[in-house]
Hints:
By secondary structure, this protein is an alpha+beta fold. The protein has a single domain (4-89, 179-341), classed as Beta-lactamase (3-Layer(aba) Sandwich). It has helices at 36-39, 75-89, 120-124, 140-145, 150-156, 171-174, 176-185, 189-201, 228-239, 252-259, 322-341; strands spanning 4-7, 44-51, 54-60, 70-71, 205-208, 224-226, 243-244, 247-248, 265-266, 275-277, 280-285, 288-295, 299-304, 309-315. A hairpin with a 2-residue loop joins strand 11 (280-285) and strand 12. Helix 2 packs parallel to helix 7 and helix 2 crosses helix 8 (189-201). It is globular, with a radius of gyration of 19 Å. The chain starts with a strand and ends with a helix.
Amino acid sequence: MKKAFVMWALxxxxxxxxxxxxxxxxxxxxxxxxxxxxxxxxxxxxxxxSRDNRIVYEKYFNGAGKDDLxxxxxxxxxxxxxxxxxxxxKGYIHSLDEKISRWFPQLIKDTDDRKRTITLRQLMNQAxxxxxxxxGTMTGIGDFLALTDPSGYTLHAPMVGDPGREWxxxxxxxxxxxxxxxxxxxxxTLLFAxxxxxxxxxxxxxxxxKMKDGYYDGSGLLSIRLRTCDLIKIGSLLLQKxxxxxxxxxSSKWIDxxxxxxxPYNATWGFSGSTYALCWYHARAYGVEITYGMGWGGQSLxxxxxxxxVMAVNESIxxxxxxxQSTLFITKIxxxxxxxxxx
Length: 343
């Protein structure tokens, strides 16, 4: 499947973040060059840190460059979360408690009555009870990606649980968010994102691939691709209550629902004690409260409201090292970045 690359000549280059025009190194940023997990990490591509809307550290590794589009894996879910919020703001979607059968009427006639009750909130909370792609098997993701109609299969397959009962990480069901965005707005997910998110943020270049059902991937299995410094702009929306450079992008109500979710679910991975809601994780890590996105192999977008800081990291997506890289980020790289950003 070919990549769908879209370019917009809009507001400026990657180093331009809100009103900050250049990178200003903090006195302690050179400390990061001595951290073994950063200095001697062949799978690390980029680190960008911001505080108070200013880039304070930006560095690329192992041949990567600032203009490279990086495979963000499940950070795609965080983008879709913001797009759902924008669609709610604009009246395309009525609320999080709408039944997804509005967009998938075949569920009304399904023999399993539980499918009629699934809400958008449950879908975004990874608690829909719908079929998932068997992450515990060697071929689960490959088998799902090989389906000619992955979304149709997900909706038609037998339920694996009761809606709302428990958290089950589910790429197959999360992909349905892309269909909901398209069907509710009448625009492709990419076009909607371009108009209401990327263009206002000055994000010039995006790579996004479609699944075999013809919809842009909403889960991160094929993934959105952004520059690492553009991820910082996404994270900044959470700090600025949905504004960027003085412009309203998404409502403060939606940002509050992300930062302070009601009844989040306990997650089984990520930072210790993490919870999950509306496609974002939450945890108390090394003494600070964080809201974060996490993608396979150590793709990380971490928002630290108390420090007015955002961290964005991209690493290799190699299956052979992905779990080790994610663990290294949590245990070694994040604490080092936190030391710098807390200076």
